[in-house]
Amino acid sequence: MEKFIAVTLTILVPLLVGSGIHFATGFLKKKPNRKDS
Amino acid sequence: MDWQELWQLLTPSVGATVTGFPYYISLLAIGLGIGILTGFFGVGGGFLVVPILNVALGINYELAVGSSLSFIIGTSFAGLLKQNKVGNVHFRVAGYIVAGSVMGAVLGDSLQMFLLYGVAGGNEALFTVFMHSIFIVVLIATIFSMKKPDSSGVKKKPLLAEIGPPPKFHIAEWGPLGFSVPGAFLVGILIGIFTGLLGIGGGVLLVPVLLGLFGLSHPKAAGTSLAIVFATSIVAVIKKGFGDIPKISLPLTLVLLVASVLGVQLGVYLVGKSSGAGFRRYFIYVLSAAIAMIAFDLINTIKEF
Known about the structure:
Strand content of chain B: under 5%
Helix content of chain B: over 70%
Helix content of chain A: over 70%
Largest sheet of chain A: none
Order of helices and strands of chain A: H
Radius of gyration of chain B: 19 Å
Shape of chain B: globular
Radius of gyration of chain A: 17 Å
Largest interface: A-B, 18 and 29 residues
Number of strands of chain A: 0
Number of helices of chain A: 1
Oligomer: heterodimer
Shape of chain A: rod-shaped
């Protein structure tokens, strides 16, 4: 049981960080382009 | 639920020569450096992470390999989401290669265990000599596989469309031209073995393969390579995670991942500041420096016998 949770965490945690990186960089890139009309 | 056992599984002893604060600072520096290279050259950096963790910090190869693969899951997934958004992932090609590469990853891990226990008799120093030697050969092969861009403008027929047994599959870019399914499967197995054995994503090997054997364009080769690396790394981590000895350190993975994120941004900034000329030459310098570092440590390890 512990091994199964450990394996799941070693996959899920990097996945979450990876998707976090993707959305964070996307957000940071969009921000400077916004101009007040 | 035994929380203590779970904690021990996630944070095994990595056998590093430095511990505590200096260990984490060194990991941050390595992650930052790898991230800069990723941002600057557009390579995954897995082929550098594993030997550097071993040479610079003395981390056991089996733990460096497993943790590198967990790290690659995060970096390749971030890249894959980005590439998929712009339509650079060729899922059909990726699917046929992944069918082989997941099997290769399992074989690669078994080969690693065979080298460690069957050949080296559990002697970590002898195992390090084997792994150092394999890394040197792979890095030298990478240098030689880096061809100058073809400026003739002639679209060459992909190699896997000419050779390889049937059945064949088709991709839109090449119309009626068929690609060998067993050939793609075999390529996957070979790439997967490198992933399971060395902990490298295989992007540095996959991109030339996708360009030469499948005739994909550079952007599609990069995007498709990320999909293959991502799927293969997950299977390799599962195989290693359920193994008899601990092979993945989650704190090591996380520190590398966070530091490399910052490094990638810095690398992309440096690309913007550079003229763009001599990228290939700079990359060869980086690979040569890595080869020299591993060779130096290899000689020192052999001297200890």
